[in-house]
């Protein structure tokens, strides 16, 4: 689902101890074999624009506690850049410590900061979805089923950039800490977008 991020503020959230969990001190350049992009983990403590964007998102996506997320992952794709098909949920066998401590990546919040002139859409081939967002749009999806198991339908990719530069900022939101804001697992309304945005 996509949603344009509207400017709202929530000063209390910024001061809350939970918010501090995704704050920290380092910004580390990241390399990955499954994508061709410049990547950086960004901690928004000293980045007022990102901190504000985070607060606005938390206001808009009330059903998810975003403070459980990893630091922002910023990806900048130049011409021929891409992110090959992948899942965002973690394999608990190879990411044992992280998954045990914080649960799996229950949701992805992808903020489109800049779109490419050509190419660079986000595709979900298993559900026949090709998303062509505008700058400022936010794409949110759940990576796990109500049972907590990984959802194989969430396979996705950033298609190759044909012209220009695409920049996205991702929050991978973890399961632990969502108990009081997420609807209960057995609820059929779990995937209802109104629970996230209204
Ligand atoms: O940039 C995109 O379209 C996809 C990004 C993505 O898959 C991710 O950040 O996990
Ligand atoms: Fe992804």
CATH superfamily: q2cbj1_9rhob like domain
Sheet having the most strands? 7 strands, antiparallel
Please give the CATH architecture.
Sandwich
Which molecules other than protein and nucleic acid are bound? 2-oxoglutaric acid, fe (ii) ion
What is the terminal-to-terminal distance?
13 Å
Overview of the molecule:
The chain has 198 residues and is an alpha+beta fold. It has a single domain (2-197), classed as Jelly Rolls (Sandwich). Helices cover 17% and strands 31% of the residues. The protein has helices at 11-15, 17-20, 48-60, 96-102, 194-197, and strands at residues 2-4, 29-30, 35-36, 38-42, 72-77, 82-86, 105-114, 118-119, 122-124, 129-131, 137-142, 156-158, 161-163, 166-174. The strands form three sheets. A seven-stranded antiparallel β-sheet has the order 1-11-7-14-5-4-2, with no helix packed on it. A five-stranded antiparallel β-sheet has the order 3-6-12-9-10, with no helix packed on it. It has a two-stranded antiparallel sheet with strand order 8-13. Strand 9 (122-124) and strand 10 (129-131) form a beta hairpin. The chain is globular, with a radius of gyration of 16 Å. It starts with a strand and ends with a helix. Mean pLDDT is 81; it is low at 1-26. Bound molecules: 2-oxoglutaric acid and fe (ii) ion. The site of 2-oxoglutaric acid (AKG) has 11 residues, from strand 5, strand 7, strand 12 and strand 14. This is CRE-PHY-4 protein. Residues 68-175 form the Fe2OG dioxygenase domain. It comes from Caenorhabditis remanei. Keywords: Dioxygenase, Iron, Metal-binding, Oxidoreductase, Vitamin C. Pfam families: 2OG-FeII_Oxy_3.
